[in-house]
Amino acid sequence: MDEPHARLAADVPGDAVARNTAEVLARLRVVRAAKRDERRRSLAYTLYCTVLLFAIWGVPLLLAVARAGTDGRLEGAVAERVLSALPTLVPAVFAGVVLLLAARGGWRGPALLEQAAVTWLIPQPVLRRALLLPRFIASAVTASSIAVGVGAVAGFLFSALGAGSWWGMTGAGAVGGGAAGFAGTALAALVQRHSGTAHAHRSRILAAARAGVAVLWAAAGVSLAYGPWFADIVVPWSGPWGWAALPLRSAAGDSGVFVAGAGVVLTALSLIVVGRYAVDAVAHMPAQVLRTQAGTAMRVQASLYSLDLRQARAAVRTTRRRAARRTVRLPFPGRSWLVVPWRDATALLRAPGRLVWTVVWAAATVALLCLDSAPTPVTLMALPAAYLAAAQLVEPARIETDDIRRAAHMPWSAAQLARRHGLVPAASLMALFTLGGAVARAAGWWADSLLLLPVLVPALVGAALVSAYRGPVPAHLMIGSLTPMGDTGPLGALLWQVRGPLVALVCLAAVDGPARGTAPDAPGLLWPLAVGAAMTWWVGVTARRTVRQQ
């Protein structure tokens, strides 16, 4: 519904609105001259530091990778699987990046005004297009530039694995990255345009987009596991996500120049269409959306400055409108010790998205451990994947930590309550890992390293609970101390945020065992249990300290 000031602006003649817009923008250019110059100097300094750090750290690493590729040190089963999966892997990455950028428009779109500009300019009879289009263009240029750089680096790394010449792969990667950046920004403008309306099909469109990306990633997973199949022909021509990957496929030597040219033309036409719709959406951006997102952006920025990631996530969550769904109710338990697991299970059943991500990360963990003759860094990636599966299941404990009044009537201490929150995650992970092992054995993918998964559960759940009960960053860590390398405040605050999973995963990876590709033995299986016991004790200590501080 239009706001009163929007109807007032509509009553003003078009010529008067255009003249008023020109006067307002001219006045703003004069008033903001000093601030604009300061922002340009800050941007130039940021670019200088970025280029300098890349030249110092990035270029030597890339050259080392290129030399390793030339010497044949990167050759192997993993490199062959990755290169053979390029026709499905690159479209999946492209679609995933575009979806992430587009979803960001729900709380911070590309056509964003600061709070002061929203308060002063929006009620005035000014053209919304002239006011917001420069913001959209700046956001699109920024996102596309970053994506071009990331895509070029990715193409260069693919060339080091043996996929075509380095200059061809680098250029093709830059083209695909730039297309992903612009397409994601344009779609974010459309999402921002409709984020404040009760659009009946919005949730269905988002669900369909997620399902499409999941299908693309499933196809890429099959290609990585089994090698080439018919999806390698279908996916690259199935839509814009595949068209943007055609130049990279051509540069890798899988197709000719005609295919690359067709991909560039089709991608350019797609970007022109989505850009046209994005400009139209910017010109009709609702004022309520601009006000809401300006406030949300301020709260998120303040939370990030204090490194309070939980508050930043809570601010973003308040902007999401969820469709009404039937409430899940479990039978109330007859025993007191089942109350906390009952609450946790009910909360997780009412958030099916977390259960889905738990299954995804658990499947990724099993798949990584099933890889035959994979290098140690690849198998070690199973540990963070397993932790991410556990982290999804401790969300009820995290919510309870944000408001300790929810558990004030419970007859248990903070340490006992925190440990009881680990019962449902531990049982769920145990069931998922057992099921994954059974599927791997039935499919002929069994590996002895899967025996490690059940004994990892206590350590993983303990690390997730330590992170859930971590509380706010202490003031002395935020202040830090000055050293020749700079202020230690940001680093200390960051380590505080990730101390639970960091300690657990480092300890689990430090000892030789199935996670490092060696055969399972008694020390390799007993060490995770010892880490789990230590993490369980740490959970109690952290919960007591956090509740006492609140």
Give an overview in words.
The protein is mostly helical. Helix content is 74%, strand content 1%. The chain is built from 27 helices and two strands. The chain has helices at 4-11, 14-31, 33-71, 77-84, 86-103, 115-121, 128-160, 166-193, 202-226, 231-234, 240-243, 246-251, 257-283, 287-305, 309-317, 339-349, 352-369, 376-380, 382-393, 395-402, 414-420, 423-442, 452-468, 475-479, 489-497, 499-510, 522-549, and strands spanning 482-483, 486-487. A two-stranded antiparallel ribbon has the order 1-2. The longest helix has 39 residues, at 33-71. Residues 4-11 have low confidence and may be disordered.
Helix and strand arrangement:
Blueprint (H helix, E strand, L loop, with lengths): L3 H8 L2 H18 L1 H39 L5 H8 L1 H18 L11 H7 L6 H33 L5 H28 L8 H25 L4 H4 L5 H4 L2 H6 L5 H27 L3 H19 L3 H9 L21 H11 L2 H18 L6 H5 L1 H12 L1 H8 L11 H7 L2 H20 L9 H17 L6 H5 L2 E2 L2 E2 L1 H9 L1 H12 L11 H28 L1
Antiparallel strand pairs: 1-2
Helix pairs in contact: 3-7, 5-8, 5-9, 7-8, 7-13, 8-13, 14-15, 17-19, 17-22, 19-23, 21-27, 22-23, 23-26, 23-27, 26-27
